[in-house]
Amino acid sequence: MRILFIIFFGGGLGSLLRYLVNRWVTGLATTVFPYGTFLVNITGCFLIGFLVFFTERFGSNALNWRLFLVTGFCGGYTTFSSFSFENIQLMTNHHIFTLLLYTLGSIALGFAATYMGIVLARNI
């Protein structure tokens, strides 16, 4: 039961931060490109890459932190469903270039950010 609470609490904090970051970024940008979700997903990729490899060095002693931060927080913070929905909206509104830029940019930068997180964690 304790593990479920750890994941639940981390997920709640991640979801709250996702909402706040998305709202803040959306307020700054006046474009059809979904910068809020883009930023959240790229920073989430970096975080998950960093946290998975950083916590590995602590072995089973870091299990609760890993569940809280990786499974809970990063799981609540990043959002594939919003990414998918925004792409459908871009397609429906005939913003094909933005759709392609968003999709390809999210995948390429997501992989790069995850890798950079891993590299940073290995070098700390």
Would you give an account of this structure?
By secondary structure, this protein is an all-alpha fold. The chain is 84% helix and 0% strand. It has helices at residues 2-28, 35-56, 63-77, 80-92, 96-122. It is globular. The mean pLDDT is 95.
**What summary fits the major beta sheet?**
none
Rg result:
16 Å
Query: For the terminal residues, how far apart are their CA atoms?
Result: 33 Å
The percentage of residues in β strands lies in under 5%
> What is the β-strand count?
0
**Count of alpha and pi helical runs:** 5
Instruction: Note the run of SSEs as H and E.
Output: HHHHH
Stretches with pLDDT under 50, minimum 5 residues: none
What's the average pLDDT?
95
**How much helix, percentage-wise, in residues?**
over 70%
Q: What is the overall silhouette?
A: globular
The SS-based structural class is mainly alpha
Which terms would index this structure?
mainly alpha, 84% helix, 124 residues, single chain
List the helices and strands and how they pair.
Elements (H helix, E strand, L loop, with lengths): L1 H27 L6 H22 L6 H15 L2 H13 L3 H27 L2
Helix pairs in contact: 1-2, 1-3, 2-3, 2-5, 4-5
Brief write-up:
This protein has 124 residues and is an all-alpha fold.
